[in-house]
Design goal:
mainly alpha; Zincin-like; 2 domains; 15 helices; about 70% helix; binds zinc ion
Length: about 400
Amino acid sequence: MTLKIGVLLLVILGGLYKIVLSIVEYRSANNPTPENVANVYDAETYEKWKKYGAEHGRLALVSGIVSCLVSLALLCTEAYAAFAALFPAGAFWQLLAVVLLESAVGIVIEIFRSYVATMVIEQKYGFNRSTVKTFIFDRIRSAILEIIFSLGLAWLMYFAHSRTGDYLILLFAGAMFLISLVITFMYPVFSRIGNKFVPLEEGELKDRLMALLTKHGYKVKAIEVMDASRRTTKLDAYFTGFGKMKTIVLFDNLLNAMTPDEICAVFAHELGHGLHKDVLKRQILNIVNLLLMGLVVWITVREPLLHTAFGFEDVNYGFAYILTGIGLGILQPLTGLLMNAVSRRAEYRADRQAVKEGYGEAMITAFKKLAKNNFAHLAPSALNVVLEYSHPPLSRRVEEVEKAMKNQ
Ligand SMILES: [Zn+2]
């Protein structure tokens, strides 16, 4: 009984976390705009932004409350075990039953949520590009993917646990390590699929960028331009690969939207990340995070009492998958808190790199273009920033860059 209450409390805590966050976010639309970023949007655009943000916030709040209440109802009534009893015995059928019920409920809630988000809110503000037909097609496709994904993971938990027993956690650690290595080394290869890359053309811009690299003895294989404008309006640049294979990728949008000084500022910022090995540090934190996730999985599959408390006769791997989700609902905000804090610090440090190279002013105007382009929140609440933001809000970054410029 205490275990059952414990799990229900975790569901409530996880739900409350999301609900409180969306309330804070919803209210933050009315925060006064800091003076140093007041010129990012014109008054009309900002009013539109506020209303748009508020509508999405309200929707997130309602759907958060609904899914928390539904989860509690399903758990309290032992509905998962009752539904599984309708299926044949055997670990696979039993996990299939639980995953099907969970996915069906999740999909229904998601259809309502995304219908309002896409066809009502996005439509109203002119962002919606999908018709009812593509909307339905997209929903069916993601429902099928969701079921396959959940089923695959639950089955993997069953397969790995039945083969390795308590060594599961070691297996998980090894697998995570391998996967992260593969992703790190293969990312430059994967990112080439479906995108076109051309070397940055010779000229003044390239000379200035190369000079920045040489100054720090930073060797790269190439500076390339990606045709990102075909699918996104995002402005971005990133460094990828390791050792002699390092490549710098600039989005074509970035080159079109920014002045040479601003491009150099963004580039110097990315170089700052490179010089401080921020990507590697994030990778290591990611592995730690994944291991903690593995620990949650391990606890849910090896403790039968967690299952019998909800009406099952023994461990049900579909239910273990659900319990893992509940555990992560608590764990993720905690690890996110740490990872976001580390990431925001790295951003400030990278910004200072741009200042050091003499691009402080250009960095600020580049930030403002980025913020406008991404329809960014100019005055998020401090609580949202601490819990959720991997990058500091615009006004804080401008403040820090100005401070660094004064101290130079
Ligand atoms: Zn950055």
